[in-house]
Recover the amino acids of this structure.
């Protein structure tokens, strides 16, 4: 008999061993954002009202241009190749104005992102605004977070069916209105509305409405955060624009940790206790379904609703607001260094507070000067320069154009008396919305 | 060993690749993404069934929708023909001068005639209708057989010296090499050249004028202005079909070249010929 200890033990593992397996795909986890209230929620309501107002109402604004041009304030007249924007009229050969606007939009996005982080994502992105709108509907019909979780888990009853059908019906109405509003930018709105209603509009109008209805309903109602996390390239581009001086929604561990649900007991036992009571309010309100306390992450659109949720909890507890706050990474790191004795120990909230309970001096606090730095000045300068060039060029542009093109074939014709006839094509562009006298 | 591929912080498997300390997480895909992926595959397969796709030995599958780009072209051409029908009918029933007098019809005829010209006429007259030696320039104001719409129409319909058409425009300049003496040819050439340009040897002009009156005036006219009935060119202007100057004129007097233009009505049909006439008339020299 051989001693078992003499058998060589090999380092081998099956390639399909259970611990190596992981699913190829996972289902979406449903998110039931709770209603938040506070400063940022108020601000988001305001932004939503303004952006949706602009989107739905702009085509209905009138702007008198006389008898020779449409009276719609904003109109992309593709058939006649004209772009009207209030007092500005752009012809195809002036398309560089649009290119300039796109450049300004790009640089403007750099500027916003490098200073206040993903503010575009959090407040003004159509995906965010429409999801917010769809959530308002969902909340009004099905109730707030807990009611919705309960309803979702409940078996199908007449009530559940009624609530679900109502919700999707309202969503669809909003989606149709969204697609419907879009087409009015491309034709005279009142006339087109009549045509759409009577079924006499161009097929492209109906196709556009149908496509935008579909995308609005699917993205705003069904996919929501999946669009931001998986489909949108913008979150990936952020990383190149954010730096340690950009504002991001931050969980301030340096005053929050160690979190505890039983602060009094822990304090009595002599353990250090941070401000976070682990109530999960920040997670419950998050439309992306993430926990901001895990740190800055790709999914966070910086909508700041967790700040509102946390602030109201801090108010109730009688502690300073700002456990979750807009902060720069530089400030956060500086305060973390204080709370951890320069990284030597775990977070000790005692280190950031004086004996009387207020914050120690020397903690970094946010002020506007921090986000304005060389980089943002360069962005601001480039943005303004493009804008000024565009405005100058717009104010000084010529509204009369004469093109004389010499015929190429035949280049010239010799006539019977020996003279030469040259052919020209003359193009005269009168770009004001009125007739001109010959000497104008 | 295998645990090396699990990321400590997220607990997610990594791909095992590492760049400067950065590892790539191997997160599972969202289910809707995988479903979308499979749907696109199904769509692609369905597409190959719906449309011509799979190669066979001598052709390919036709697809259940019976799509054919040739059919599409045929339908589009039929639609274009239908759209043109109104104009074509009007052109058939009207004379060329009536067509030229009607703005809408003229515009249509010029466009259609221009297209026909580029296929049938540019080989001789050039893409700009500038012509070349022996082939008339159609842009200028010099017309051998007349520059009115009807005259141009007649020329295109029956051709010039085109034996197969009984109504063709007919004329033939005599070869004077056997009729005139060489010095007479030199004299008459000098005279004709003097009609439109400065002369060097004035001594030839007077005898040349006499030779002209005796031999040439019958067709080209006493004043050498030509005769459109006979297609006899105006010899006093700046335009020379076979070249200007005494040498070119002398060569033409000795052994004239008589160009031929085919009759087009048989090949192109009455409508296209009318359109061509209106187009040629519109080039700038029409009378």
């Amino acid at each position: 008999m051989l001693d078992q200890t003499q058998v060589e033990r090999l380092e081998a593992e099956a390639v399909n061993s259970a611990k190596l397996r992981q699913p190829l795909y996972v289902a979406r986890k449903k998110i039931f954002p709770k209603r938040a209230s506070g400063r940022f929620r108020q601000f988001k309501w305001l932004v939503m009202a303004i952006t949706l107002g602009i989107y739905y109402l702009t085509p209905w604004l009138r702007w008198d241009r006389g008898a020779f041009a449409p009276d719609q304030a904003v109109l992309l007249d593709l058939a006649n190749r004209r772009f009207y924007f209030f007092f500005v009229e752009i012809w195809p050969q002036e398309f560089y104005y649009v290119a300039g606007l796109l450049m300004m939009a790009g640089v403007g996005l750099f500027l916003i992102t490098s200073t206040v982080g993903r503010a575009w994502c959090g407040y003004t992105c159509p995906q965010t605004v429409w999801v917010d709108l769809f959530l308002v509907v969902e909340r009004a019909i099905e109730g707030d977070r807990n009611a919705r979780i309960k309803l979702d888990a409940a078996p199908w009853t007449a009530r559940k069916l009624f609530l679900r059908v109502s919700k999707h019906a309202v969503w669809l109405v909003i989606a149709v209105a969204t697609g419907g509003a879009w087409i009015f930018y491309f034709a005279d709105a009142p006339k087109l509305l009549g045509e759409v209603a009577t079924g006499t509009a161009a097929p492209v109008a109906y196709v556009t409405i149908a496509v935008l209805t579909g995308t609005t309903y699917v993205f705003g109602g069904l996919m929501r955060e999946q669009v931001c996390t998986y489909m949108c390239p913008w979150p990936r581009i952020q990383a190149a624009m954010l730096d340690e001086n950009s504002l991001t929604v931050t969980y301030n561990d340096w005053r929050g940790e160690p979190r505890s649900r039983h602060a009094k007991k822990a304090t009595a036992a002599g353990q250090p206790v941070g401000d976070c009571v682990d109530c999960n309010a920040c997670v419950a309100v998050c439309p992306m379904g993430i926990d901001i306390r895990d740190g800055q992450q790709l999914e966070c659109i910086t909508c700041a609703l967790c700040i509102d949720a946390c602030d109201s909890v801090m108010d109730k507890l009688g502690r300073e607001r700002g456990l979750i706050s807009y902060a720069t990474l530089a400030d956060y790191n500086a305060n973390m260094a204080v709370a951890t004795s320069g990284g030597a120990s775990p977070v000790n909230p005692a280190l950031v507070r004086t004996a009387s309970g207020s914050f120690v001096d020397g903690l970094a606090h946010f002020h506007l000067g921090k986000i304005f730095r060389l980089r943002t000045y360069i962005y601001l300068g480039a943005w303004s320069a493009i804008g000024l060039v565009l405005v100058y060029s717009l104010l000084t542009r010529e509204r009369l154009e004469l093109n004389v093109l010499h015929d190429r074939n035949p280049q010239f014709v010799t006539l019977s008396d020996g003279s030469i006839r040259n052919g020209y094509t003359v193009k005269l562009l009168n770009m004001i919305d009125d007739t001109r006298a010959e000497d104008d | 060993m295998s645990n090396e591929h699990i990321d400590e912080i997220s607990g997610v498997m990594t791909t095992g690749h590492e760049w400067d300390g950065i590892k790539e997480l191997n997160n599972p895909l969202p289910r809707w993404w995988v479903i979308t992926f499979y749907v696109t595959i199904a769509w692609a397969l369905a597409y190959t069934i719906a449309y011509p796709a799979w190669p066979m030995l001598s052709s390919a599958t036709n697809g259940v929708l019976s799509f054919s780009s040739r059919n599409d072209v045929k339908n589009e051409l039929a639609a274009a023909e239908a759209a043109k029908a109104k104009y074509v009918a009007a052109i058939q029933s009207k004379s060329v001068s009536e067509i030229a007098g009607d703005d809408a019809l003229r515009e249509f005829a010029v466009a259609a005639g221009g297209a026909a010209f580029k296929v049938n006429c540019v080989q001789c007259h050039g893409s700009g209708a500038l012509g070349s030696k022996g082939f008339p320039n159609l842009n200028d104001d010099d017309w051998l057989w007349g520059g009115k719409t009807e005259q141009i129409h007649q020329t295109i319909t029956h051709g010039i010296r085109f034996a197969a058409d009984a109504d063709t425009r007919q004329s033939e300049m005599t070869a004077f090499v056997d009729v005139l003496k060489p010095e007479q040819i030199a004299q008459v050439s000098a005279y004709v050249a003097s009609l439109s340009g400065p002369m060097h040897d004035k001594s030839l002009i007077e005898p040349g004028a006499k030779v002209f009156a005796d031999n040439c005036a019958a067709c080209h006219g006493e004043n050498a202005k030509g005769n459109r009935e006979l297609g006899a060119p105006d010899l006093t202007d700046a335009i020379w079909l076979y070249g200007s100057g005494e040498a070119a004129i002398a060569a033409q007097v000795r052994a004239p070249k008589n160009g031929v233009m085919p009759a087009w009505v048989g090949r192109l049909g009455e409508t296209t010929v009318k359109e061509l006439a209106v187009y040629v008339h519109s080039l700038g020299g029409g009378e």
Remarks:
- The longest strand of chain B covers residues 14-19.
- The two ends of chain B are 97 Å apart (CA to CA).
- Chain B has a mean pLDDT of 91.
- The longest helix of chain B spans residues 69-93.
